[in-house]
Amino acid sequence: MFDSEDGGADVTQAPREHTPQTTTRRDALRGLGVGALAAALDGSSAVAQMAQGHREVQPGTPPLAGIRVIERSNLLSGRLAGLLLADQGAEVFVERAGPTPAADQRVALDDVYFDRGKIALPPGAAADASSADVVIVDGAAQFARAPHQILVRIVAALPGDEPYGHLPHDCSEDLIKAVVGFFTNMSVSGPILNRPVIYTPLPLPSVYCGVNGTVATVSALVDRLRTGLGREIIASRLAGGLSAIGALSITSEGLPDHLEPIVIGDLPPGTTAEQFHTFVADAIRDPERQMWLERRFAPFSTPCRARDKRWILPMAGPNARLSRRLLEAMGLWDQALATGVVFVNPYDPANIANARRNLGDSLSLGFTYTSKLADLLEAAFVTRTAAEWERFLDSYGTASTIMMTWEEWQRDADAREAGVFVEIPGTEGVQIGRTNWMRSAQPYVPLLARRAASTLPARTAPLPPATGRANARLPLEGYTVVDMTNVLAGPSCTRMFVELGAAVTRVDVMDPQQPPTIHVLWSGENSVDKGSIILDRRKPEGLAIIHQITERADIVCCNMMDDQMGRLGVDAASLGERNPRAIGLQITATCGERHGPRHHDKGYDPSIQGTTGLMMRFGGSETPTFHGFASAVDYLCGYLGTLSGVLALYARERRGDGRGDWAETSLCNAATLLQLLFQRSGGELPASARGQLATGMTASERVYQLGDGWIFAQAPRDITAELGSRNRTDALAWCAQQNIPAVPVQTCKELADRHREHPTTTVKFEKRESDGWTTECFAPTWFAFDGKTQPRPKAASRIGADGPAVLAELGYGRAEVERLISSGAVGRTEWARS
Questions:
Q1: In this predicted structure, what is the pLDDT of residue 401?
Q2: Which of 121, 550, 795, 810 is the most buried (most CB within 10 A)?
Q3: Element holding 316 (H helix, E strand)
Q4: How confident is the model at residue 271 (pLDDT cuts 50, 70, 90)?
């Protein structure tokens, strides 16, 4: 998620930019136009900082210029990795005799998109790959790697994985999705509405694997600059799926009671069993009643009908300040308080008695209160059109969006202006644009269609010489990262830097606006092995410590708006003055490669799902619903952020001038990339693969319900009759006898429980402990370097527990540390009062 609230604003203040409904920031930016905007920036610090420190590289030089890649993969993951490298200037060669056969998905890959920017050679023309820096292959394909080369293998499960080793590297994507929980844990309301298993057509494991493999590849290129040596990388599709379900599977013991997540389930307080049964039965029968019921569980993050019957999605629930701001903007604050709710700090243990009626943690509100709030919001939203609400709430700095279909998102003028979608000369329609960009490469060369060559040309860039230095165990050892993010996308981005060997320090705020479930519990997964300090950004001494920490960093990662970064002194200009070699890494909601009308919009994973058509795809036009609350977009955006960071790091180290950069990605780019199989018109999915009753791509390759669970079978015909009354174990054995690929449909919890005591090379659910806080998470097996996965990371620290150690590294003595804590500039562990 992207959460720009930095804890420094007064929630009672007037709207930041309260303009008439017909004029918003977006409209004003449209009115400026490209020429006017450029003129307004001429001579400004923004233009100066874009050019600062890049004298050795011509403007428009992409970070991977001169890198040669030979792509021998037919899998979505490998071809996506090649595409991401080509988008950043790498010279990517493929062999093509005709259309590439589909390998790991039921929708054939679109060569026009997946071969973008690549050079097609005749079959056999790239047999001699000795000139390549990077070679991408599928499975166990034979390849004799030269010392300077990076070999990337795309597999299903890691080598030696007994339970999952039977899955061939090019197995159906659906088999992997069934195993890791993507058919069971993506729907928020499915279990309540007796829909425990819902098929999803999104190629989540392969997209994650492709991005993770690319991150590992560029990180290996960074280390190769120090050693001249390449390495072998194994990227697993199954592990790619695991990398997206951390928040859905983490367990926790030992947190203070007021920070423990409130378990919401069973019969909602304030209703009888008969009443709730009626609610559910009505929701199953009537789409309108389904949405009515969902709003009563989550009034601040469920679509409402506007006056024009279009869906408008408010997105304030994950943030206390935005929840209050939404109600105040709509004139509902006093009415909300009249329902009996309060607005107090959930991080203060004195307020635990108010946990189920506290707007400060709206995710934990009791059903009685959420129902009353839903009544208020529904009555208000029907008074204006969806467009009027979006403009109005945007002017108040509140995240909201008009719900769109994928086709509407593709046609969206704002998305095209920002470069989220681009036109490629010589091709029809639009394609998904670059997902990563940095200022040292601006202006990027236009993206081009695949071009042909008859032979592999001679290499012009010299091969890197060996320096006599061995590769680090992990490629980013020796680099430092400062994490100033919150929620999930940003912390997951910096967690991957830990997994690559970097030292990461997490800088937390004194008054977090996210609920403890998001800010504390999820940190047990996304902040493993990070140092943790709490600082009051509003106090001069707290701000000074932030500056000291960032002065030592290679990368400073933030998920904030531009103006907030400026107030904290971590914007490009300020960071460049204090630490000219630092790379600023910004994760935003709706930005693209080019500055567009949505540049300043707020957003979260769920709201971006509404913008980009994911909710309509997964829920249908009458019941749009989230495709996972935390595992569709957030994690992918985080890993794209890591990719942006390592690309900028490679460019900096390659230039050798010690000058920094500014790198970016956004949630909307991640949400768009997840739908990469659906870019071309005419590719409408069958009814069996759409909506909340989806079962599979065909009548035979689908999920099958049994007496004790579900399986997914890639059968040549409907096998319901043959499965009969078999249990799941017998059904899987029968499928194996018939040579029908089949796997159990598992929840994230079932997968974790299965491998807690019986880990495999790919799936390890590990227990970690820090100062009495015990967590369980999946081990990071998403990439393996030279046959080895990452060493077991340390447990996440209790938030703020490393403050004294961080300050000591900065040169503070014990007495000064104690004074800073007493003054409130530095927070105590978990915001304790004493």
A1: 95
A2: 550
A3: none
A4: confident
Q: How many helices (H) and strands (E) are present in the chain, helices listed first?
A: 31, 26
Select the more confidently predicted residue: 35 or 344. 344
| DSSP three-state, residue 409 | helix
Q: Is the pLDDT of residue 239 over 90?
A: yes
Write the DSSP assignment of 370-389 as a string of letters: HHHHHHHHHHHHTTS-HHHH
Phi, psi torsion values for 358, nearest 5 degrees: -105, 115
Helices (H), 742-812: 748-756, 803-809
What percent of the chain has a predicted confidence (pLDDT) above 90?
Answer: 83
| pLDDT mean across residues, the chain | 90
Q: Choose among 291, 299, 298, 275: nearest CA to 376.
A: 299
Which of 216, 191, 66 has the alpha carbon at shortest distance from 136? 216
Higher pLDDT, 632 or 587: 587
Q: Quick check: 3 pLDDT over 80?
A: no
Sheet strands (E) in 327-476: 400-402, 421-422, 431-432, 437-438, 451-452
Task: Write the CB contacts of 809 (distance below 8 Å, at least 6 apart in sequence).
Answer: none
* Residue 792: per-residue pLDDT: 87
* Residues recorded for the chain: 834
Q: Is the pLDDT of residue 106 over 90?
A: no
CA dist., res. 76 & res. 115, Å (int): 11
pLDDT at 256: 96
0.70 cut: is pTM over it? yes
On the 0-12 / 13-18 / 19+ scale of CB atoms within 10 A, 124 is exposed
Q: Cβ–Cβ contacts within 10 Å for residue 23, how many?
A: 13
Beta strands (DSSP E) in 106-224 are 119-121, 134-138, 150-155
Question: DSSP label at 256?
Answer: -
Distances from the Cα of 28 to the Cα of 188, 371, 590, angstroms: 37, 37, 17
Concatenated DSSP letters of 11-25? TTSPPTT---TT--H
What are phi and psi for residue 465, nearest 5 degrees?
A: -80, 150
Q: At what angle do helices 386-395 and 320-329 cross, to 10 degrees?
A: 120
Is residue 827 within 8 Å of 536, Cβ to Cβ? yes
Confidence (pLDDT) at 262: 76
> Exposed (0-12), middle (13-18) or buried (19+): which is 458, by Cβ within 10 Å?
exposed
Q: Is residue 229 a contact partner of residue 470, using CB atoms and an 8 Å limit? A: yes
Query: For the chain, first and last CA: distance in Å?
Result: 32
Contacts of residue 398, defined as CB under 8 A and 6 or more positions apart, other chains included, come to 314, 316, 322, 325, 326, 329, 602
- Please give the Cα distance from 186 to 105 (Å, whole number): 20
pLDDT classification of 334: cutoffs 50, 70, 90 = very high
CA quadruple 561, 562, 563, 569: dihedral, nearest 10? 110
| Amino acid at site 304 | C
What gap in Å lies between CA 203 and CA 241, rounded to an integer? 10
Give 780-802 as a 3 state SS string.
CCCEEECCECCCCCCCECCCCCC
- Interval 392-415 mean pLDDT: 94
Give residue 268's pLDDT: 79
Taking the C-alpha atoms of residue 193 and residue 190, their distance in angstroms, rounded to an integer, is: 5
For every residue of 655-675, DSSP letters joined together read: HTS---EEEEEEHHHHHHHTT
